[in-house]
Amino acid sequence: MGLGHVLLMPLARVLEPMLFHTRALDPLAVSGVVLLGLVTALAAAILPVRSVLRTDVMSVLREQ
């Protein structure tokens, strides 16, 4: 996320014509994208772990 923000600084002029009624460095838009990315990464990490924690590891190992 930090690297993306650093890359956004020099590319802001190129990106602004493609945006609709917002600036490329708008704090609300940037923080919204960062928050969305963090929530997505957290869900991608937690959901598989919850699935694994519900299984009985010993029974799975016995079956194999």
How would you characterize the overall build of this protein?
With 64 residues, this protein is an all-alpha fold. It has one domain (2-63). It is built from three helices and no strands. It has helices at residues 2-15, 27-54, 57-63. The chain is rod-shaped, with a radius of gyration of 20 Å. The mean pLDDT is 86.
Give me a quick take on this structure.
The protein has helices at residues 2-15, 27-54, 57-63. The protein is an all-alpha fold and 64 residues long.
Chart the SSEs and their pairings.
Elements: H1 2-15, H2 27-54, H3 57-63
Question: Keywords for this structure?
Answer:
mainly alpha, single chain, about 60 residues
Low-pLDDT parts are none
Overall geometry comes to rod-shaped
Tell me how many strands there are: 0
List the total number of helices. 3
Largest sheet: none
- Average pLDDT reading: 86
